[in-house]
Amino acid sequence: MDWKNLPGSGGGLQDRRGSGGVPGGGLAVGGIGGLVIALIAMFFGIDPSVILGGGQTTQTQTQTQSGAPADTSSDEANEFLDKILGSTNEVWGKVFQQSGRTYTKPTLIRYSGGTTSGCGQATSAVGPFYCPLDNGIYIDTEFFQTMQSRLGGGGDFAYSYVVAHEVGHHVQNELGIADQVERKQRAARTEAEQNSYGVRLELQADCFAGVWGSSIRAQANITDADIQEALQTAQAIGDDNLQRQSRGYVVPDSFTHGTSEQRMRWFKTGYTTGDPNKCDTFNLAYNQL
Ligand SMILES: [Zn+2]
C-alpha cells in the first residue's frame, strides 16, 4: 500500500498525546464516562475493545517494526493517519455530493493513555471508537501494536481498515442510520434483538470500509496482500473469535459485531462493488447477513 500518495485531511487530525492522560491509563473506563462509553459501544461499536476485556490483561508486547505506522513514537504515524482520514473525506465527500448531500468531515483524535471525548472519558482500554456527539474518531495508536502482537494482524492496510471502519460509523451518523437504529434498539424487547441491530450497524461499517478501500485501490496501489491484511483483522475481531479467545466458547446471542466470516464477507462486498448501496445490511433477514 502506498499511503503516501493519498491526500491529507487538511487539519482533521488532532494529536493529543501527552495531554489529558488519565493516571493509571490502561485501566478499564469507570464512572459515568464509562457508562456513556459503554452505551456508545453498544450502539456504535467500540470494536476491538472486546479483546481488551474478558478479564485479560491489557499489557501489550511491543514488537514494533521501526518506521512502521504502528510505531507510536514516530511522527510518521501522524502523517499516515492524516492521509487515511484525508482519503476517507475525499471518498465520502464525493458519494454524498452525488446524492446532493454535504459530508461533514469527522475529526481524528490521536491520544495516548486517556482523553476526554464528547461521549465521556476514554482510555486506551476501550480501543478505537467513534463519538457521534462530537464527530470524533478516537484512537490510541498503541492499539496498532496490540493488533500486531495479539491479533496476528498488523500492517498499514489493516490499520487503515480500522480507521475506515470508524469513519463508516460517522457516515452512518451523517445519514441518520445510527439514529434510526438507536430508536429501534430502544424499542427492542430482548437483548438478542437489540444486539442484532448492532450487528447490522457493524457489518455495514465494515462494508463502508470496503467501499473506501475500493476507491483508493489505484491511487494507493492496494495489493491482494493488503486485502489479506484487512481480512485477517476482520477475522480476528469477529465476535465469535473474540469470544472463543476470552471465554473459550461462543454465545451467538451476545454477538454485537458479527462473526469473523460475516465481517470479512461484508468488507469484501464493499471492496469488490465499491458501491455503498450494496452495504444495506438492514433489509436482509438476520440469518442471511
Ligand atoms: Zn464498529
Could you please describe the fold and organization of this structure?
With 289 residues, the chain is an alpha/beta fold. It has one domain. 49% of the residues lie in helices and 8% in strands. The chain has 10 helices and 6 strands; from the N terminus they run E-H-H-H-E-E-E-E-E-H-H-H-H-H-H-H. Strands 1-2-6-5 form a 4-stranded mixed sheet. The protein has a two-stranded antiparallel ribbon with strand order 3-4. Helix 6 (177-187) packs antiparallel against helix 7 (191-215) and helix 8 (224-236) runs antiparallel to helix 10 (260-273). Mean pLDDT is 79; it is low at 21-68. The structure holds zinc ion. The site of zinc ion has 6 residues, from helix 5 and helix 7.
Rg is: 17 Å
Strand order of the largest sheet: 1-2-6-5
SSE pattern: EHHHEEEEEHHHHHHH
Instruction: Give the low-pLDDT segments.
Output: 21-68
> What average pLDDT do the residues reach?
79
Largest sheet: 4 strands, mixed
State the helix count.
10
Number of domains: 1
**In whole angstroms, how far apart are the ends?**
30 Å
Shape: globular
Question: Helix- and strand-based class?
Answer: alpha/beta
Organism: Deinococcus taklimakanensis
Region (Disordered): 1-20
Protein name: Neutral zinc metallopeptidase
Pfam family, one: Zn_peptidase
Topology:
Blueprint lengths: L12 E3 L15 H14 L4 H4 L23 H23 L8 E4 L3 E4 L2 E4 L5 E3 L4 E4 L2 H9 L5 H19 L2 H11 L3 H25 L8 H13 L2 H9 L12 H14 L16
Parallel strand pairs: 1-2, 2-6
Antiparallel strand pairs: 3-4, 5-6
The protein binds zinc ion.
